[in-house]
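Recall that a protein's primary structure is simply its ordered list of amino acids. Everything else, from secondary elements to tertiary packing, is in principle encoded there. The following example makes that idea concrete.
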Amino acid sequence: MYETPKLLGSGDSCLVVEFSDAIEIDANIKLQCLRHALDDLKIKGVRECVPTYRSLSIHYDPVKLSREKLEKIVSRSLEKPVESGGALKRVLVMPVAYGGEYGPDMANVSAHTGFDEAEIVKRHTARDYYCYMLGFTPGFSYLGGLDEALATPRLAKPRTLIPAGSVGIAGKQTGAYSIDSPGGWQLIGRTPLLLFDPDDEQNPTLIDAGDWIRFRSISRDEFESIGRDVNAGTYKPERFVERDGGDGSCHS
């Protein structure tokens, strides 16, 4: 992680604030804090702040906001201290039905890791995962923190259609498909939660970069029950905020 983030131009309407040249959770937490700080300022001319693994892209209208002024605002925001250890951690509990029709690649992961299905589920649900960024499709979460013993290469031949909600492993990453789409991750389960809702203008994605995800194993019956409630619009995903003694996270 850089001691001082780099301010880089990307065309005439985007400023990139780069925090590191590697994927590091501390760097990502700091860029999320900057993102929320800029959102709170409601800067005239800033169109959107897009987080990636190690940088924040700030898209702005150069007619309304100069690059020089934006850089000054960003620099002042970066000077403010960022809480790390003991910070607040926003957690979303994601129910997942593992294996069977919901996890068609469970056997592949088992063969690669040497673990049976029960051990894979135990390890996958044993820790919280940090969402570094959203990408690929609206609401697709790139989660860090996978037990390295579960790391499994992508499929040699990607599928042309993966059901929304599918939870997979690709290398040292895990994540959930937000919409029906092609993909090459090893599918081990599926969540009945609606991860992307284009009709929700305020919060179209259930997961936000900087969130933490805690997977919870559920039965097929519970999957179908939650699915019915989700479709009826009556299911409220379990969320809570706790104080983290480690990396923490930053939310406004």
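The radius of gyration is 19 Å. Residues 128 and 214 are 5 Å apart (CA to CA).
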